[in-house]
Fold this protein.
Amino acid sequence: MALDLQQINDRIEIEELLARYSRALDYRNFDELDSIFTPDAEFDAGGLGHPVGPADIRAMIEGTIGHLDATQHLIGKSLIEFSEDGDTAEVRTYLISQHIRESAPSDVKHYFLGGEYADRVVRTPDGWRIRYRRLDRMWKQGDRAVIGH
C-alpha cells in the first residue's frame, strides 16, 4: 500500500499521540490527558470503569495509578486504518504495563498487564485526539492488589 505524504504525517502524529498518553501516565502529568482525548471521549477500561470525558477519564486513571511508586506503559507499533475521508482512524496497539508499589500488602510488589488498546481517533483543529479507547486485557502477572489502595 502506497502512502501519500498526508497519510505518513497522520500516522506519525497518531503514534506520537499514543506515546504522549503513556508518558503522561508514567510521569503523572495527568493534566496532559485533556490534550489527548476529545471532550466527548469514552474509555472502556473493563472492571475499572467506563468514564466519559477527559475529567472522568483522568479521575479513573489517577485513582488507579496515582498512588503507585512507578509505572511504565510500553506500547508497540500501531496498526492504523483510516476512514475514506481520512479524518478518523481505527487504531490497534499492543501494550505492556508495569505497576510498582513498595508498600503493597503482599511480598509481590509488582503487577504486569499485557493487552491491546483499541482506539478510535479523530482529526481536530488542534491535531489528532482519542475519541474512544478500549483496553483489552490479554494476560497478567504479579499481584493485582498492587494497584489497590
